[in-house]
């Protein structure tokens, strides 16, 4: 077991529900993320967000990022982020979508520059940040390229870099392992861990169907599903039905976790949950 | 034999020399049909060339071409300005119906409209401009609105998570992000104004222009001259189309990168 402490809450979701038309998409979502502190190192948070397709994960993402704002009509509840737990606002939470949309009319450097200009007004500081991240993400040789000239992996790195430069510690990633071969999954997993640990408050929430890859790097798992009534009928409106603290279970941050028996038992348990979600 | 099979295989890549040989072969075939098999009424290439020489040296073809090009680009400038304004304004809900009506106006017949425009125009030139601008705008607006609507929710949401402000999102995603496609819409629809030119110039022949010249030659059954003017319009049209393409690739070097990759 590693020494750690869970300090202040940095993301709090209270009684969130969403209705679109007549359909209840989300209901009664209450979760929170605390800053995990480990002595002598910068430890970010990685949350794996699992659930069947079409359950409402993307809509919840859109609420977490402020794309769907809380409006007291169909989107109810409260979402607060940061050390001061301020209400979430569009632009504060980075979202990395599955197909990595970028600004195709801008070069890689310009894509990062336009994002960084939101947070860093001083041109010199901005250039330093961009160049630093280009080197970190092994993109410095591609900075004059346009997005359509990049490979899928390079696009993903630019998309992550772009969101890191403009958002405040929170990143939502939609299916980062989708369509990748095992080698690329390893690389992306390593990158996510690196990004999370770049800052103590960095928090990455990963939506994925890849239970193995997500569980291997997460410290917490949320499993979204819907309740059923006495007759077994689905009650509309998804919620976080299960939350797994992988640190407590001794399954977080361990190198080669995929080769352990406990890890595979947990993945089997998670798979077993899916038919009833 | 394999090369011939390749020419009739879908999406088959063929080398440059084969392509060149095939293209030259097709041109020779067309010329052969034209020279030896076409009805005698159709002027032959040599007759057309001779007529073109006469028109260019003594017939005022070059001056008339200049008059037509001036008119065409004047109309194009106004049509693009009007179309861009209407198309972009559809991003604001208040102006959506206007954009919808403007794009559907392409189903209105020009003959009926020419009478209304005649009443509204002080000079012949004015009338031609109005007809060309209308004829072109209704098509460009339709293309431009489609381009604006092609921005996906994912693309909008990506920009929203960066900028927050919807005005900035629209500026980046639609105005800057789709500028190359907008120019392409102008390029594609330019052919419409080019084809309409003869119709508009035919209505007011006193100002000259290749359209008026062609109708005059047609009236006197000078078919070789009519073909010479047609060919001039055809080749100048292709040249302008090429120049539009050149402008697009110079201003927007990223525009065709994705297709070049394939």
Explain the overall architecture.
The complex is a heterodimer of chains A (277) and B (262). Chain A has 277 residues and is of the alpha/beta class. Helices cover 30% and strands 26% of the residues of chain A. Chain A has helices spanning 57-64, 108-119, 123-136, 152-166, 182-196, 211-217, 261-273; strands at residues 5-20, 23-37, 45-50, 75-81, 86-87, 93-96, 170-174, 203-207, 220-225, 239-245. In chain A, the strands form 2 sheets. Chain A has a 6-stranded mixed sheet with strand order 6-7-8-3-9-10, with helices on both faces. In chain A, strands 2-1-4-5 form a 4-stranded antiparallel sheet, covered by helices on one side. In chain A, helix 6 crosses helix 7. The radius of gyration of chain A is 19 Å and the shape is globular. With 262 residues, chain B is mainly α. The radius of gyration of chain B is 23 Å and the shape is flat. The interface between A and B is medium-sized, with 26 and 23 residues.
Provide the fold topology:
The complex is a heterodimer of chains A (277) and B (262).
Chain A (H helix, E strand, L loop, with lengths): L4 E16 L2 E15 L7 E6 L6 H8 L10 E7 L4 E2 L5 E4 L11 H12 L3 H14 L15 H15 L3 E5 L7 H15 L6 E5 L3 H7 L2 E6 L13 E7 L15 H13 L4
Parallel strand pairs in A: 3-8, 3-9, 6-7, 7-8
Antiparallel strand pairs in A: 1-2, 1-4, 4-5, 9-10
Chain B lengths: L1 H6 L8 H22 L7 H13 L3 H29 L6 H9 L5 H11 L3 H26 L3 H11 L2 H11 L2 H25 L6 H10 L3 H29 L5 H5 L1
Helix pairs in contact in B: 3-12, 4-7, 4-10, 5-7, 6-7, 7-10, 8-9, 10-11, 10-12, 11-12
Features:
heterodimer, A: 277 residues, alpha/beta, 6-stranded mixed beta sheet, 4-stranded antiparallel beta sheet, B: 262 residues, mainly alpha
């Amino acid at each position: 077991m590693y020494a750690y402490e869970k300090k202040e809450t940095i993301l709090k979701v209270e009684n969130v529900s969403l209705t679109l038309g007549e359909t209840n998409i989300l209901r009664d979502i209450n979760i929170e993320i605390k800053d995990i502190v480990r002595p002598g190192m910068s430890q970010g948070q990685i949350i794996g967000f699992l659930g069947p397709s079409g359950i409402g994960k993307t809509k919840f993402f859109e609420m977490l990022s402020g794309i769907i704002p809380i409006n007291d009509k169909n989107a109810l509840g409260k979402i607060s982020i940061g050390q001061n737990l301020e209400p979430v606002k569009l632009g504060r939470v980075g979202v990395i979508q599955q197909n990595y949309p970028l600004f195709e009319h801008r070069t890689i450097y310009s894509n990062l520059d336009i994002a960084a200009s939101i947070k860093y007004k001083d041109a010199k500081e901005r250039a330093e940040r961009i160049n630093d991240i280009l080197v970190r993400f092994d993109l410095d040789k591609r900075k004059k390229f346009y997005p359509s000239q990049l490979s899928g992996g390079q696009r993903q790195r630019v998309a992550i870099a772009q969101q890191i430069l403009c958002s405040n510690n929170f990143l939502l990633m939609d299916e980062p392992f989708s369509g990748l071969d095992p080698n690329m999954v390893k690389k992306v997993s390593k990158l996510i861990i690196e990004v999370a640990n770049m800052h103590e408050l960095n928090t990455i929430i990963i939506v994925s169907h890849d239970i193995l890859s997500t569980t291997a790097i997460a410290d917490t798992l949320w499993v979204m599903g819907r309740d059923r009534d006495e007759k077994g009928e689905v009650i509309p409106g998804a919620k976080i039905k299960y939350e797994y603290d992988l640190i407590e279970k001794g399954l977080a941050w361990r190198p080669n976790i995929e080769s352990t028996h406990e890890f595979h038992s947990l993945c089997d348990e998670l798979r077993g949950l899916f038919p009833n979600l | 034999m394999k090369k011939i099979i390749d020419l009739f295989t879908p999406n088959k890549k063929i080398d440059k020399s084969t392509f060149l040989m095939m293209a030259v072969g097709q041109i020779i075939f067309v010329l052969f049909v034209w020279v030896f098999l076409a009805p005698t009424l159709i002027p032959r290439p040599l007759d057309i060339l001779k007529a073109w020489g006469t028109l260019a040296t003594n017939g005022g073809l070059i001056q008339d071409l200049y008059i037509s090009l001036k008119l065409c680009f004047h109309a194009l400038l106004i049509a693009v300005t009007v179309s861009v304004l209407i198309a972009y304004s559809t991003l604001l809900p208040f102006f959506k119906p206007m954009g919808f009506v403007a794009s559907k106006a392409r189903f209105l017949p020009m003959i009926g409209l020419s009478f209304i425009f005649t009443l509204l125009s002080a000079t012949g030139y004015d009338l031609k401009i109005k007809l060309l601008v209308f004829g072109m705008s209704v098509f460009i607006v339709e293309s431009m609105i489609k381009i604006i609507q092609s921005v996906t929710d994912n693309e909008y949401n990506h920009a929203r998570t960066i900028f927050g402000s919807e005005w900035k999102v629209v500026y980046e995603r639609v105005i800057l992000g789709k500028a190359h496609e907008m120019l392409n819409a102008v390029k594609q629809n330019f052919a419409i104004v080019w084809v309409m030119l003869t119709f508009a110039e035919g209505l007011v022949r006193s100002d000259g222009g290749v359209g008026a010249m062609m109708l005059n030659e047609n009236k006197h059954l000078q078919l070789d001259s009519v073909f010479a003017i047609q060919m001039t319009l055809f080749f100048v049209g292709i040249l302008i189309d090429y120049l539009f393409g050149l402008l697009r690739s110079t201003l927007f070097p990223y525009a065709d990168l994705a297709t070049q990759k394939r």
